[in-house]
């Protein structure tokens, strides 16, 4: 299987194929990464890999007390990820394509990227100004009954949305049409649900689409029941997330 070496961007969250990722870049290692990506012609994909942090800090301590009052400043591309960065990351991540990279006057960057395909992390190189990684694509089969499962997940997801909107004492926007392709459904629902990071990572690395959809169906039923019994449960927006600070 063909491998590729790409810049590596670790986050405390999970990126799924097809989902948009806004980034606010201020650390020097990631500024250097964006400057390198800008060397790629605009008509070519400006690709980097996003992996979820298993053990480490998304923002490295850059000065005493920032961001942790007890932190000691760390420098270098692997700052915050220990002596062996490979051990700090989950092994399945997502390749992202940076559609927009805007440099601000102060040298920081505003980036808008989109997840494209899953990839498995094979090695990490910390010898340059930013982390790079060797990755191989993770292909995905539909699995058995993916179509029927996608229909069930969509029905359950609509109920989940309604319960969540009720818990927030607001109306549910119904203008947006949900997709019906099983793979797209599986990734959209995984990204939109209010789940902890390990659960989202489990969904990302599911062996096939049907397995992910089965897992999501169970999760949707459980979460909907919880919201029904706890109507004041706080919630975040289903289709919008915060810009990651990096």
TrEMBL record:
Domain of life: Bacteria
Lon N-terminal domain location: 3-224
Record-given protein name: LON peptidase substrate-binding domain-containing protein
């Amino acid at each position: 299987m063909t491998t590729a070496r790409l810049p590596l961007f670790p986050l405390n969250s999970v990126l799924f194929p097809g989902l948009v990722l806004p980034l606010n870049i201020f650390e020097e290692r990631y500024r250097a990464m964006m400057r390198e990506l800008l060397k790629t012609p605009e008509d070519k994909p400006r690709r980097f890999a996003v992996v979820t942090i298993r053990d480490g800090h998304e923002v490295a301590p850059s000065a005493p007390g920032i961001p942790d009052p007890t932190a000691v400043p760390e420098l270098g591309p692997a700052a915050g990820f220990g002596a062996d960065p490979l051990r700090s990351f989950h092994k399945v991540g997502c390749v992202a394509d940076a559609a927009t990279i805007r440099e601000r006057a102060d040298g920081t960057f505003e980036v808008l990227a989109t997840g494209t395909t899953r990839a498995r992390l094979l090695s990490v190189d910390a010898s340059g100004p930013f982390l790079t990684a060797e990755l191989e694509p993770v292909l995905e089969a539909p699995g058995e009954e993916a179509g029927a499962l996608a229909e069930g997940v969509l029905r359950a997801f609509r109920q989940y949305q309604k319960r969540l909107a009720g818990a927030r004492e607001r109306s549910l926007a119904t203008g947006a049409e949900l997709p019906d392709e099983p793979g797209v459904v599986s990734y959209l629902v995984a990204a939109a649900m209010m789940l902890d990071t390990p659960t989202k990572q489990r969904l990302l690395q599911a062996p096939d689409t049907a397995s992910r959809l089965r897992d999501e169906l169970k999760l949707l039923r459980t979460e909907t029941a919880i919201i029904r019994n706890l109507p004041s449960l706080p919630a975040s927006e289903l289709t919008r997330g915060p810009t990651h600070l990096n």
